[in-house]
TrEMBL record, chain A:
The keyword Lyase does not apply. Residues 2-248 form the ABC transporter domain. Pfam families: ABC_tran. This is Fe-S cluster assembly ATPase SufC. It comes from Xaviernesmea rhizosphaerae.
From TrEMBL, chain B:
One of its GO terms (biological process) is iron-sulfur cluster assembly. It comes from the Bacteria. This is Fe-S cluster assembly protein SufD. SUPFAM superfamilies: Stabilizer of iron transporter SufD. Residues 170-395 form the SUF system FeS cluster assembly SufBD core domain. The lineage of its organism: Bacteria, Pseudomonadati, Pseudomonadota, Alphaproteobacteria, Hyphomicrobiales. Pfam families: SUFBD_core. InterPro entries: Fe-S_cluster_assembly_SufBD, SUF_FeS_clus_asmbl_SufBD_core, SUF_FeS_clus_asmbl_SufBD_sf, SUF_FeS_clus_asmbl_SufD.
Amino acid sequence: MLEIKNLHARIAEDGTEIIRGLNLTVKAGEVAAIMGPNGSGKSTLSYILSGREDYEVTEGDILYNGESILELDASERAAKGIFLAFQYPVEIPGVATMQFLKVAMNEQRKYRGEEELSTPDFMRRVKEAAAELKIAPDMLKRPLNVGFSGGEKKRAEVLQMALLQPKLCVLDETDSGLDIDALKIVADGVNALRSPDRAVIVITHYQRLLDYIVPDTVHVLYKGQVIKSGPKELAHELEANGYADIIGAAA
Amino acid sequence: MTAHTASPMTAAETALMDAYTQQLGDLPGDGAVLSARDTLISELKASGLPTRRVEAWHYTDLRALLRSIPAFDATAFARGVEPLVAGSAVLRVVGGHADGSNAPEGLTVTTYAQSLLSGTAAGDLAARGNDDAIGQLNGSFVRDGLEISLADDSALAQPLELQIVQGAGQSHLRFPVTFGMRSRATVIERHLSQSETGALVSSVSDLIIEDGADVTWILVQEQGAADTHLGQLNFELGADAQFRLFVINAGGKLVRQEVHGVVNGEGSDFKLRAVNLMGGESHTDLTFTLGHDVPNTTSTEIIRNVVFDRARGVFQGQIRVAQDAQKTDAKMACNTLLLSDEADFSAKPELEIFADDVQCGHGATVIDLNPTHLYYLQARGIPEKRARQMLINAFVDEVVEELEDEALVAALEGIIEGWLDSHA
């Protein structure tokens, strides 16, 4: 589903290279965990996948279902099924949450040549998905993410994911700022989306989230490269011994 | 005003003077009205159209901007339309002619043409001052409008729409409106144009809001892309009265809307909310002056401007607090979204405070759309154009939503969305 080949990328504004020859393959149905110390390029990778214009790809390619997505803007990538759950969801005053959800769902449908949702159908879907994630109807009446607690923001991200039904889900530090109850709710939401035709990339600092979203593969990112890949047990190893051994072995 | 040596008249000035001579026999009014008109046109002739050397017109050089004057056209096509909010009572001024019939209960309505003919209007025609070019122009040429009064203790169940539809040519209109004590009303002053050739409209509304009245006045300006709109709204606010004025400018090529208020009753509150949408090569000026003349009154002004293309916008806001007006609380904010490198906006907030125990403040900001907000919306599959529209809408909608009345909010949102659809 996703193939990243020898990717090099830098910050557009100052030219700082962050991703330095990254290779990664994620198959349909797979849950891949990306771990690594601070500053290894994890969040940058998620932004580049989503099409954020603050970064420039200088070499290599990103293939999604066999096609390069480098020329697509963020909205086109999203409409093709790539979803990034943000580490820091953005508060947008003045944009009503419900309006935002409806426009996003319908714009994606339009892009794919599908019919727009009727209002009752839209309302029903939101209600059901919100109930699953224990999101109070009051929260949906507020402007997008405005005044949401950290946990509410993360749940709102997973709600968007559940409604948009993407094919490739990228979760950037979705566990940060969550207490254990909220973590379980969010993990249940993600697990409900696991399916043979969908891939999930979980970016995290800690093993903790991976107890709830159990990965198929684990990849260690360091200085903009994947320096080690392995089965889920690799995460336990990292938790026990830290990154130093692996970094040392790769150096 | 600075006295300056007589420079040759511009084409527009000559056309105005000629029009006055030609129209003279035909303009409604008794001797007193005629004499007031003569005074106004001589004032205008003596000073000429104001230039940037006149302080009140510094950012809108009317002499340079008003290039030509369309001829009066009594046969121009214009037709009334449905009200903005379904169920409103509608009084129409179509092609310059007012119809005062079908007024809802509680209202007394006469046409301004009648007031001119009978001479009762003569005392109201004087200009606000030497620099009041709108008052001079309007008073010289005014032919019609509506004189309205709402009885003490009465309330309008539905909004009243004053629908002013302009065809080609010129119209000069007046709307003296008195809201009696403790009355309640929502009035929509709506300017529309069906002219494609560049009409000239001047419109002066004089509102008296008596003690304890609660009034919402919505001024919607949607003139055509080639039109000139010169508007002025004057108000006096009595004790314990509440006045919410909402101005939306979404049309016109050359627009100057003035709002001049005097708060002269204790315990009253005034709110001005304005949305100015500007695009193309248009010039839109909102000029506001407010006098807090008595103690214990409050006012807030929030102006939101969206400027596209090569449009130019102006906001001048002046709040004066008289020496006696202790405990005045006045706050003014002017926020502008500049969406093109060639767009231009000038903001000139002024506070003149002569009392020592007051709270007054003003602020002006100029911003571009937040790129992180734009990225977040796009990352959810919303194409850039739509995402930009949503954010622009959000910027102005905060102000619109304060109106609370759902039908009214929806109608104004419709105007804004329609405008953005054709400009964004």
